[in-house]
Write a structure and sequence with these properties.
Layout lengths: L4 H4 L6 H29 L4 H24 L8 H32 L4 H31 L2 H4 L4 H7 L1
Helix pairs in contact: 2-3, 2-5, 3-4, 4-5
């Protein structure tokens, strides 16, 4: 049995497949955000928390599109108030947590005189830790409130019955 076989055998439309896909999107967008964060902090010497905001915004655009379309199979028009705003709110809650972690790590790394790759590594680990703390809650919200089957159901079934 290979490592891929359990993933291939996951039901095509089941929650386990969505978890694997959502995790894949998170890995991809985290890699994108961390690359941007490293380039902005180490290459451009941007302040760590500002770089984290820019990196997160870049990753959030990609994350929204991939989660909505590839993970949950939504191809209809996005609803700004029911999907876009809550998704960005979740992302920026993660950003707030991550930014606090990045700022604290940056301050600590400076205080203990870490430089170069070690300093950057500490900042990157702090960023990942901030987002990892929020990932499970985000999946539940995406599954049940934003993109999953329950999110597609009518909000007021009684209203629809009366309309018939």
């Amino acid at each position: 049995m290979t490592l891929i076989q359990p993933l291939v055998s996951v039901r095509a439309d089941g929650p386990a497949r969505r978890v694997v896909r959502c995790l894949s999107v998170s890995v991809l967008t985290t890699t994108l955000s961390l690359t941007a964060l490293a380039i902005l902090t180490a290459g451009v010497a941007m302040t760590a928390w500002v770089a984290n905001v820019v990196a997160t915004a870049a990753g959030t655009v990609v994350s929204y599109r991939l989660n909505r379309r590839w993970v949950w199979g939504r191809r209809d028009a996005s609803d700004p108030w029911r999907e876009v705003v809550p998704f960005w709110a979740l992302s920026f809650a993660g950003l707030a947590l991550s930014t606090a972690a990045v700022a604290t790590a940056d301050h600590w790394a400076t205080a203990v005189h870490l430089t170069g790759g070690m300093h950057t590594g500490v900042v990157l680990v702090a960023s990942v830790a901030g987002y990892a703390a929020l990932w499970i809650a985000q999946f539940v919200v995406l599954e049940h409130l934003l993109f999953g089957a329950r999110a597609r159901a009518p909000r007021h079934p009684r209203t629809e019955e009366r309309a018939r």
